[in-house]
Amino acid sequence: MADTGLYEALEDSFARHAGRPALEVESGRSATYRELNAEVARCASALRDFGLRRGDRVVVQIEKSPQVLVLYLACLRAGFVYVPLNTAYRQNELSHFVSDAEPSLLICSPAAEGEIGALLRALRSSARLATLGATGGGSLAEAVRESSREFATVPTGPDQLAAIIYTSGTTGRSKGAMLTHRNLLSNAAVLVKTWGFTSRDVLLHVLPVFHVHGLFVAIHCALLSGAMLLWRAKFDAEAALADFARATVMMGVPTHYTRLLAEAGLTRSACAGVRLFVSGSAPLLADTFRAFQQRTGHAILERYGMSETGMITSNPLDGERRAGTVGRPLSGVSVRVTDAHDHSLPSGETGGIQVRGDNVFAGYWRDPVKTREEFTEDSWFRTGDVGVFDDDDYVSIVGRAKDLIITGGYNVYPKEVEAVLDAIPGVAESAVVGLPHSDFGEAVTAAVVLASDGHASTEAAIIAHVKSQLANYKVPKRVYFVADLPRNAMGKVQKNVLRQKLAEQAAQPRGG
Fold this sequence. Notes:
The protein is of the alpha/beta class. The protein has 15 helices and 25 strands. Among the domains are: 8-156, 3-Layer(aba) Sandwich (Rossmann fold), CATH 3.40.50.12780; 404-506, ANL, C-terminal domain (GMP Synthetase, Chain A, domain 3, 2-Layer Sandwich), CATH 3.30.300.30.
């Protein structure tokens, strides 16, 4: 299957499930696979009429809607390169993405047309501009309505570029990860098998579609297996509970599960028809895992992936799902933990996570230097994550290599300290970073969000507790209480942003 284009594989699935429902939106309106394929043909025809050629980039920054799904599939079908952007990005960020991707077409919401048009003129970009609204309006929608219903799928080689995903930028400037049809299709086929997807499944889709999790993992699993997508514009805990009456699978981020736990209606009977809850995009706290299992009887399946690789590991569908781990390497994906010299380490030793397989991206867009830096001489991709294998080959993620704190010559992995902090009564969540220190080089520094259930704590009490649990060099020198932690759209803590904020606070007098 991985030796063909992604849309050719999807189209085969569409033909086998032509009369089955493919998509249902909040209003109750639905479309069969036959109808979805026809709508994709019309959209592909419209894109071709804009003068696009195979390999051209299509930059998309619009709110989630059924039309976005059709647009993505149309780009795959016509051989264009899909470049989704977070709808929260503003002018200075967009300027970087447009300059870097050099799209032939940029699609935005009708409300943003003036602003985006001015940006394209300022950049002297030759990109054409089209609009698409969340309810189906806009110039692209008009073009689709007038376009041909006939479109022959463009034959696509497995190594042709399918998408460019700009990294989330939790530690610096976003880079464009080039994903081929082979990357996407091989990973999707493995996930369908690993997670047991069939045409009987109904996937509750509550994720954004500018990111790997919502755009590739969820959509590809459903469409390749002939399952139905319950398409929701955004996550709402109360609405999700109602949808569980029909859904068999939900894919979410940890925040979704904490919000569900706040709902009194989250019970075993409410989740009785759901066979699988999946969590990713950010670490799932062990306490959340245990609380959800106690309330519902479901062990959330946590997996691990990234923009450059798709999914890498997964807890098992059948077997023990271990809290605090991301499971074992997926079939066809090789994973190793290494030292600073790229030498493999045995189980139990912490090091850098490296990956190899058909799922691994083709490199960073127009950045061969960075691409070379991130691959070893024997072609393993350095993920930048730090982890450890246990004796049963389950992987635990310790943190990001760039987040490693070196204090007084000792290495401190933030997640180890965060786990101790999060277990303190009254602490809702925490994040640990290193700040410059004249004596130690870096000082372990914690940001703590207190729970709203009446528990309170002090900096001294928290430091004393951590000191009773960990070696002195791992104990935070300072603890700052914050209302919330800065996160990106997928819920990952932006430690670069947090580090800057805490540095500003540290520069103030103690009473300031």
